[in-house]
Amino acid sequence: MLLVVGVGFTLVGWLMDRQLTDQYERRALAVAHAVAADPDIAEAVAAGDVPVVSTDAERVRRATGALFVVVTDARGIRLAHPNPAEIGRHVSTDPSEALAGHDVVDVQRGTLGWSARGKVPVFDAKHRVVGEVSVGFAADDVRANWLRVLADAALFAGGALLLGVAGSALLSRRLKSQTLGLEPRELAELVQEREAVLHGVGEGVVAADAAGRITVCNDEAARLLGSRPPIGARAAGLDLPIRVRAALSRRTDQERMMAIAGDRVLVATSRQVRRDGHDLGTVLTLRDRTDIETLTRELDTVRSLSGAVRAQRHEFANRLHTLAGLLQTGHHAEAVEYLHALQDAPTELGPAPDGVRDPYLHAFLSAKAAEAAEAGVRLRVADVSWVPGRVTAPVAVTTVVGNLVDNAIRAARLGTRQPAYVEITLLADGDALHVSVADSGDGVPATLRTQVFAEGFTTRISAGHGLGLCLARQAARTLGGDVRLADAGTVASGVGADGPAGTDEAGSAELGAGAGHGAVFVAQLPASLDAAVPPAGRAGVLVDER
Questions:
Q1: How far apart are CA 509 and CA 277, in angstroms?
Q2: 534 CB-contact burial (10 Å; exposed 0-12 / middle 13-18 / buried 19+)
Q3: What is the pLDDT of residues 6-56, one digit of tens each?
Q4: Is 482 helix (H, G, I), strand (E, B) or coil?
C-alpha cells in the first residue's frame, strides 16, 4: 500500500506541475495576444511612443496580476517594463522567434527571475511586425498553486492509505482465520508434505470434509477401490463399499473395519480430524488384506484338518487301549465282537459316497463334521453327491463351502428342529462344481432374502461379522460362478446312479428331509475341478434353474 500510494502521489504531483505550468504559459500567451491586438498599442509601438506603450502595459499588468508585461520595438528594445530603469534597453531573452511572427511559450529566467511567459508579435495596419509583447507570470506563483493542489492530493492519499491499511489488516485477519493461522510459507510446506505423504505411503487414503464431501483420494486408494471418487462429491451418494461410505459419512472413529471392494478384502480405519476446535472432517485409511485373508482361510482349513486328525487319533488311541485291555485280560470273544462293532461304526460324515473321490474335499468336510459335532449338529454328505475329479481351486472351494457350512451349522444349532443337521450335496459338471447346503434351521425370513449377501449384513449382536456370505459370493464370482439362496419349493433331490434320468430312487437325497429343511444355499463354481476325469455315468441336479 505504501509503494502504490507513494508512486501514485509522485505521478500526480508530476502531472499537476506540468498542467499548472502549461496553464500559466497559456494564460501568459492569452494576455500577450490581447495586448498585441490593441490597435492603440500597435500604433504607439510603430511610432516609438514610450509613454503610451508603458502606461497601457502597466495597466494590463496590474489588471491580470502578471509579473511583467514587456513591449519592444522591432529591434528588441524595451518600450515598456515594470522597472522604468529597464526601458530603452535590449530584452534579456531572445526575441527573434516572436519578431519573426511566431508565438512562443516557455519558462525562462529574466531580469525579474523565473517566469512562465508568452511572446507574440505586434503587427501594424499593413500586417508588418513592428515589435513584440512578452507577458510573464512568476514561477513562485506556479509553485504556490502546485503546492496547494499537492496538499489536497496528499490528504486524499493519506486517507486512501489508511483505508488500504485497514482493509489489508481485515483481509489478512480473514485469510488467517481461513488458513488456521498458517503463513504462506507454512501453507506451501504443508502442501508439499501432503503430496509427498499421500502419494508416498503404501496405504490408501480418502478424506472427506465436515459436510461429507470428498477432498482427498490418493492413487493407492483409487487402486484399492477400483475407481477414483470425484473430488467435491458427497460420499453418501457415491458407488463405494457400504462400510467405506458409512465411515466417511459418520462422525465417529472406527477401527479395523472389514470391507469388500470388487475382488479385494480391505481393512479400513477412520479418524475424525480437528485443529484448534475446527472440525476438518474424516480421514479413512485403507489396507489391502486380500492376500492375508487368503492365507488366513488356508490356515483355518489346515487347523480344521489338524483338529479332525487329533480328534480321530485320540479316538483311535482309546479304541486301541480298549482292545488291548480285552486281549490282556483274556476276553478274546469280547475283543472280536468289539472289532466287528468298530468295523460297522459310521464315521462323522457317514460312509463317503462312491462318487466323491477328491481326498482334499473329503478331508475338509471331515474337519467341518468334527466342528459341527462339537456344536451338537450332524454334518452329512448326500448319497447322490458325485465328484469324480480332483479340486483344482482349493482356496476358492474352501471359502465357498466353508462359509456356507459354517452359516448352516449355526442356523441348525439355533433352529427349533431337532435333531439338528446340515446336509451338503456336491455335483460335478465338467470342470464345474455345484454345491448345495441345507440345514435344519428356521430358514431365512422373506424380508431378509435380498439382504443376506450384502456386505455387513448379520443377525449376530456382536461386531465383526457380516462378511461370510459376501466373501463366499466373491470367491465364487472370481471363478465365474455365483452363490445364491434357493427359492422355497425349488430344491430338487439328486438322481440315481443310472444316469441323468435318475431312475434309481434309492440314490435320492431328500435335502433336509424334504419340507423339513430350513435355508438352502447353492453355489456354482466353474473351473474348480480337473475336467480331464471322464464322466462316471452319474449326474445330479441341485436346483430347478427356473
A1: 67
A2: exposed
A3: 888 888 888 888 888 888 888 888 998 888 888 888 888 888 888 888 888
A4: strand
